[in-house]
Amino acid sequence: MSRDINNKYWDEELETLPREELEKRQLADLQEIVKFAYDNAPYYKRSFDEAGVKPEDIKTLKDIQKFPFINKTTQRDTQGVGSFLGELAAVPEEDVVFISTSSGSTGVPTMSPFTKKDFDEFQDTESRWFWQIGMRPNDRYVHALNFSLYVGGPDVIGAQNLGALCIWGGTLPSERLLFVLKTYKPTVIWTSPSYAWQLGEKALKSGIDPKKDLNIKKIIVAGELGGSIEATRKAIEDIWGAEVYDFYGLSDIFGACAAMCEAKDGLHIAENHILVETVDLHTGEVLEPGQVGELVFTTLRKHARPLIRFRTGDIGRIDTTKCSCGRTHGRIHILGRKDDMFIVSAVNVFPSDIEAVVREHKGITGEYLIRIFEKDFTNKYAVEIEKSADNPKSDDEVAAEVSAALKARIGVKPARVVVHPDGGLNTRSEHKSKRVIDERNLDYNI
Domain ends where: 338, 367, 384? Predict the structure, then answer.
């Protein structure tokens, strides 16, 4: 199928469906996938029966609220039980053509299987996101993501299907990746926000000006919150002279499930594949669109391992109003991970808010580390930063400035701000950067 490169939509009919029609399609897919899961996945039959619900109970989209939640623990407990794919799988192994796994950062890595149809629809969605940010067949694209079992690895196929010239970079060392960028002059790259920032810094220190010596026009970032933090996005854009777009994915579903458009007002989620709910962190009560809570996803078309009411652990909200770009699929706004959020003096603190302050503050490098600890049976937090080499102010002055900025943004100041020299923090990484260290011994689950 040939596409008009001047049309900003990959699939205009789908992307601009009136809300009523979109939800009508969602309901038909929801009814089918819930029945398929019940009939073919041992866990869902047992779980639905125990909850006293059946597929026929789905008459409207809201009826999904009658069904039980699942989460990462469910995946781990059922993985490998009864078969290699486990009790959540709804197809035999012979129908599976690809598996990815989670990183295991919150426990045992979990598998995510795909049938050929699942995989093909996954890649069509990736093509849609690439087209959405302006990639076209005349672009050269470097996929600088991990290919080792990572669900984001195959997303490069979506760019190939679009017609772009693709360079399967993977996790190259910085020097090698800069060589690729300088030699092959790609126009688009995808990596993590922290690495995009650090790669730009390394380029400058090695005598390469990303704006003048390289040809990158667009940077896709994912895997960390930075791409949705305006200060971080602007900092990366200032180094590269390129547009930065945030993508969001889950190993549990597929690569990028949501992506920014030119409006950069949240990330459009593929609502033809995913039904989104937002629930109260404590009670699980379903919240209205626009309210902040834990995002809960139900896969509508993935048959290898359907996910019915999967609690993602991500805190955010969904906006279902029509975007200024013309697309009608809802936009998710991610605030952070439930695992990372902590409470200080009754205030919910998200690492993303701390990052926003650090990235936009002058005279520091933008690198940071957060330490959460307990004192007198209450939560405290400390922030470690790096002072820029050319900053003439004393460490105490810089610490006081940053502490005040954090208090103004978050509502509660840190117990301390520790200032290191440029390069003094061990937070730079070729991939995701670890920026939160929890030193507490007490149980502060929210």
Answer: 338
